[in-house]
Amino acid sequence: xxxxxxxxxxxxxxxxxxxxxxxxxxxxxxxxxxxxxxxxxxxxxxxxxxxxxxxxxxxxxxxxxxxxxxxxxxxxxxxxxxxxxxxxxxxxxxxxxxxxxxxxxxxxxxxxxxxxxxxxxxxxxxxxxxxxxxxxxxxxxxxxxxxxxxxxxxxxxxxxxxxxxxxxxxxxxxxxxxxxxxxxxxxxxxxxxxxxxxxxxxxxxxxxxxxxxxxxxxxxxxxxxxxxxxxxxxxxxxxxxxxxxxxxxxxxxxxxxxxxxxxxxxxxxxxxxxxxxxxxxxxxxxxxxxxxxxxxxxxxxxxxxxxxxxxxxxxxxxxxxxxxxxxxxxxxxxxxxxxxxxxxxxxxxxxxxxxxxxxxxxxxxxxxxxxxxxxxxxxxxxxxxxxxxxxxxxxxxxxxxxxxxxxxxxxxxxxxxxxxxxxxxxxxxxxxxxxxxxxxxxxxxxxxxxxxxxxxxxxxxxxxxxxxx
Length: 469
Known about the structure:
Elements: H1 19-39, E1 47-53, E2 62-67, H2 106-126, H3 137-164, H4 166-175, H5 200-222, H6 227-265, H7 278-294, H8 302-310, E3 331-338, E4 341-348, H9 353-378, E5 403-404, E6 410-411, H10 413-423, H11 427-435, E7 467-468
Antiparallel strand pairs: 1-2, 1-7, 3-4, 5-6
Protein name: Benzoyl-CoA 2,3-epoxidase subunit BoxB
InterPro entries: Aromatic_CoA_ox/epox (IPR052703), Benzoyl_CoA_Oase_BoxB (IPR017635), Ferritin-like_SF (IPR009078), RNR-like (IPR012348)
């Protein structure tokens, strides 16, 4: 399916055929552009070497070229429709998927779309000043690619709200631009999207851990019986893959540079040589991983059980699961704390779907840590990086209100307070990392705290001028 770039709003949903919807979205567009000007990237640029979607098929869906950021063609793109697609789970299993919103599920579907939509502009707001301290033009370009695609993902959700939810949907679309990350009066809905992203180590951790949460949330919505939502999320996953690539390879390169400095100076404390020590990298892992785990919600949820039964939100890779896709009799084992000790409980699988999704996410995150430890191993250093226990530093779910060490010990308040500085970034750690954040805008050059990438973007070399300032 090609994308029509002759329209004011590029799309592949025949927007020209629905004049009322087209007018409504064209009315929302100036407010989006105003939000981008005020809350988007703070660094002025002439143009950036960006990827733009030109089709939604499996091959050849993107085009690369230098584009001025304010002129990027944000649009509305859904994956190709499967006319034979059937609902894969829940009480409507086997029935044709819905092309319109059933009245009884209207409020729930709108809420799911609003929450997803709220995360997209939030990350742009969190990252808006990072361009001022970019370690290279390559990294600057990747930041802006992530930003424009998060903006497009906002468009994806706004289209659904306008097209299928009437006045209440239009009101929610307006509200997506009124909330701001970190605002005291009108913060973003989910806690992780109100955290600061003040430095590039935080950015790499965010795009590894928090964007990976986005992958799994989009994967559950991709299964939805509401076909326009499923097709929207299917295409968003194509774009999301690059965001996680930025995080994975970004942390790769920080670990690589730290290992190089450790070997070169035979010293674990690489601060004095302009690097980030491994123990500080571990603290950032601990923080961003634990905050991202909170995005999965409580381990048990009747709301999520109802979403599944209704067909609104499935499991990760639902159709590959070898069960009845109803889960009315299935059970799941869920961690909890009982009498000050870690324990497990057997609960109905329907109410433990958040824990199921979180388990898929955790297994995926382990692959990154293994990857980073292999880099250390290539420098003769032992595997030292790890994921903390799922109960560590949690504010949501069964572990909220408890203190759990990274190795899984339940601690008293005074024990936690005495040790937290060893496990989470301290003010001193953050100050050191921030002190390294000095911009490098010369093609082919890079900051001393991070290694260069192994290859460039779209076959271009690392020293290509990805951004014209």
